[in-house]
Design brief:
Helix 1 (about 25-40) links the parallel strand 2 and strand 3. The strands form two sheets. This protein has a nine-stranded antiparallel β-sheet with strand order 11-10-9-8-16-15-14-13-12. The chain has a seven-stranded mixed β-sheet with strand order 1-3-2-4-5-6-7. It has 14 helices and 16 strands. The protein is about 35% helix and about 25% strand. The protein starts with a strand and ends with a strand. The chain has three domains: about 1-210, Alpha/Beta hydrolase fold, catalytic domain (Rossmann fold, 3-Layer(aba) Sandwich); about 225-295, no CATH class; about 305-435, Lipocalin (Beta Barrel), CATH 2.40.128. Helix 1 (about 25-40) crosses helix 7 (about 200-210). By secondary structure, it is α/β, with parallel strands linked by helices.
Length: about 450
């Protein structure tokens, strides 16, 4: 057996998900590199990687009940070994959670799929790469489908990568709608690679697809309560405990500091240090915290802006409808924009559309709609870090004419200084109402 631990494991106190790698004598080094790269970039959670080397590959990786001429099926004994000997040993020697993923290539995919089908408590998920699923008239595909349709079945999580061998369209198309709610099922093709060479790419894409919900997830707010809520949701999604990664803590602290929420930043830093050690925290964050405490609170934060009251129906009436026009950065070409403001059961709602150079449309909800100092203020989240509100204060282009508005955009809700020489040029928006239908 070979074991690799995540960067910073020795300094941390948390437990990590376990990735079980079959054919470790061939595949372990590649998987170790893939996992390290994906974890460092936030695509998958950091994992303890345990590799099992073969003693009798065909016997151990052939499921019981599957008929392959000339091969003794010893899959149940192999899974018993993992369940009764390997996992207890790993749990005694390494800090691991109950979230367990197996990755198997070729014949290894048969036993990984069999474990998902016959031992739902053994694994949380499996990545199955270029597996000869057609063997014994598609025995493994039928077995997984039977598990999916069994009464009281729990979610199944399987990612299938194909190069030479396929799962089969009919089998897969029957499996997906039959799977229990909460299942994770992905299937992809690796082009221009052989059965052997597809492994590295397949493992990369397979793990990334499996943990897509993890990589896309962000806490609703940069607070410990919101971070813990997200962690609980993701743990339920993947069927096992997921620790909060340091990257989540770091981004949350940065958001708190930008919003001058020093107390929240301090609480997150304390948790981060307790779980991963002080050396895992960039020293600059402690300096930034001291400066934020000295600077005091902002007049408006992202939270206060996005949770502020909306205008009354009477106050917003002159602005209801669809508006179209341009947004132009100083020195740049104008881009088309459209804004819609309407009523939803007496609540004012809206969205803004940006037409990109390739003519695709990026739509964002308006998180700020208010009237302040006789101006209409509209804001949307900037969609990147730093997490701020792009706020535009609109006034009539001509006095008393509410059909044409102009305003300048700014980032609000955060205390953010652009790096020297990289200041964001001012953006002016000019819009004209084209539809007055407000409801």
């Amino acid at each position: 057996m070979r074991v690799a631990v995540p960067s910073g494991y020795e300094q941390s106190q948390v437990k990590y998900p376990l990735l079980i790698v079959l054919d470790a004598e061939f595949e372990f080094d590649d998987i170790e590199r893939v996992v390290d790269f994906l974890a460092r970039n936030g695509e998958i959670p950091p994992c303890v990687v345990a590799g099992i080397e073969n003693t009798n590959r065909e016997r151990d990786m052939t499921p019981q009940g599957m008929r392959i001429p000339g091969i003794e099926a010893g899959g149940d004994r192999f899974l018993d070994f993992i369940d009764r000997e390997l996992l207890p040993r790993l749990a005694a020697d390494w800090r691991i959670t109950n979230l367990r993923v197996m990755i198997g290539h070729s014949h290894g995919g048969l036993i990984a799929g069999y474990a998902i089908a016959d031992r739902p408590t053994l694994l949380s998920a499996a990545v199955v790469l270029d597996t000869p699923a057609w063997l014994d008239d598609g025995w493994i595909t039928r077995r997984v489908a039977e598990r999916a349709t069994a009464e009281g079945s729990v979610p199944i999580r399987v990612v299938v990568g194909e190069a030479l061998h396929e799962w089969g369209d009919a089998s897969w198309n029957a499996l997906v709608p039959a799977a229990p709610a909460g299942s994770i099922l992905h299937r992809f093709k690796v082009e221009d690679e052989s059965h052997q060479s597809m492994y590295f790419i397949g493992a990369y894409r397979g793990l990334k697809l499996l943990f897509q919900s993890f990589s896309d997830a962000k806490p609703a707010r940069s607070t410990l309560a919101s971070i813990d809520s997200l962690s609980s949701t993701l743990s339920a999604t993947y069927g096992g405990e997921l620790p909060v990664p340091t990257r989540t803590y770091e981004l949350a602290v940065q958001d708190c500091l930008l919003e001058s929420r020093a107390a929240d930043a301090s609480a997150i830093l304390m948790r981060w240090e307790a779980e991963y050690g002080r050396t895992s925290i960039p020293a600059q964050l402690f300096q930034d915290l001291r400066e934020t405490e000295a600077a005091g609170p902002l007049d408006e934060t992202v939270d206060s802006l996005t949770h502020g009251p909306r205008p009354s129906v009477e106050a917003i009436a002159p602005y209801l409808g669809r508006w179209e026009g341009t947004a132009q950065a100083e020195g740049g070409a104008p881009n088309r924009v459209a804004i819609e403001i309407r009523l939803d059961h007496d609540r004012v709602v809206g969205h803004i559309e940006h037409v990109r150079p390739d003519r695709s449309i990026l739509q964002r909800d308006l998180v700020v709609i208010r009237i302040k100092d006789e101006a209409l203020e509209l804001g949307f989240m900037n969609g990147m870090h730093p997490r701020g509100v792009m706020l535009t204060s609109f006034r009539p282009s001509r006095a008393g004419d509410f059909g044409e508005l102009t305003g300048q955009q700014k980032m609000a809700g955060v205390r953010f200084t652009h790096p020297e020489g990289a200041a964001m040029p001012p953006v002016t928006m000019n819009i004209k109402r084209v539809d007055t239908a407000g409801e």
